[in-house]
Write a structure and sequence with these properties.
This protein is mainly β. It is built from two helices and 24 strands. The protein is 7% helix and 44% strand. The protein is elongated and about 70 Å long. It starts with a strand and ends with a strand.
Amino acid sequence: MKLIVRVLVIFAISYLLNACGGDDRIADPMVTGANLFYGAKAKFSVGVTAIRSDLSLRVMGCPNLVRTADRSKTEETFECDVRTSGEIRFEGVDSTGTVVFSKSFLVPDPQVEISTSVGSFRVDLFPSRAPVTVDNFLAYVDEKFYEGLLVHRVIPNFVVQMGGFEPTMKLKEPTKNPIPLESNMGLSNLRGTLGMARVKDPSYNSATSQFFVNLVDNKDNDYKSPTAPGYAIFGRVSSGMDLIDLIALRPTTTLETHQNVPVVDITILKTTRIR
């Protein structure tokens, strides 16, 4: 969302002379950023020396930019809510819509560590490509929903699935509404990617808390059409894929209507936001 907050900002003006005469130009101000993490409130400091009232400020991917009370004769500070990962740009825009200065910053992908009874692995999430799915997953992580649940479905050369069942395969009721299916976002079900489980058609928008890790490239599960939407990818395993591969070798059984259940319970002990 391109939200422009009009502010009276003090910027340096350099007076550059050339052979053809005088020419007033904006000098790029000194801009620094802090707390640049997805879901956090970023803080930007802008070095200033002269009033320029016709400029607006915006940060692409970080809406709700506001000036804070922290200021000095040489610096203005601003805050906004980081709503993406990757590159974000702090820009000054004049009354004609021309960008007169721009500075880029890098926001890392959010990362979560999942500790299980047999080891830990970490996942990096992709909010720029699947924002609703990432927010849903992080909300479950933050409320500790996953802790005590099983890795309940293991199919070698396919997927390892978790996030919905307590020991004895008792379903843990989701605490949030199902989310829209974000499968048509240009991401593929490649080995190591993190996807959302859902019920079969026609209830495509049915994902809640359960997720899976692709053990191999499962491109048959990619989006193909509105009637064959596949499964939404929202992250990837960044470390610990060897653990996932070992889990995939565990013997499984059938418990009532549930197939491919590990014979020995594998339990999620803790989920922790790393960034």
